[in-house]
Amino acid sequence: MVFIESIFMRKESFYHLHSEICKTMANPRREAIIDTIHRGEMTVSTLVKKTGISQANISQHLAILRSKGVVQTRREGNNIYYSIANPKIIEAYDLISEFLKESTSYKNKTVNDAFNYKR
Questions:
Q1: With the C-alpha atoms ordered 69, 70, 76, 79, is the resulting torsion angle positive or negative?
Q2: Predicted TM-score of the model (pTM)
Q3: Which helix (H) or strand (E) holds 108?
Q4: CATH of 2-116, one of 3.60.15.10, 1.10.10.10, 2.60.40.10, 3.30.1510.10
Q5: What is the spatial distance between Cα 32 and Cα 58, in angstroms, rounded to a whole number?
Q6: Rg (CA), the chain
Q7: What does DSSP say about strands 79-84 and 71-76: parallel, antiparallel, or unpaired?
Q8: Mean pLDDT within 2-22
């Protein structure tokens, strides 16, 4: 019984860490940042231009992403460049995107089939 409880406790800690990363990623503006910088490192000003998100807002979201290890920084002179810290973040983002595309296609097909059904 003690062995089973200790396995559960280790899994519970894992689930907590996992959900923290998922919560970090589960924000439309952070997803826009991830989607934009996955092409290569960028400064805050470049991210502002590419996303249309205000500098103050971008900076807040980058601070959260950095604190959770999703993005990393590199300083060059006065510029700080942001990039994805681990390529697996992009893999996860891409997998969720593929899932959405597939599930949306299925839902659209189901709805279209329902409306195109000949009585």
A1: negative
A2: 0.79
A3: helix 87-116
A4: 1.10.10.10
A5: 10
A6: 20
A7: antiparallel
A8: 80
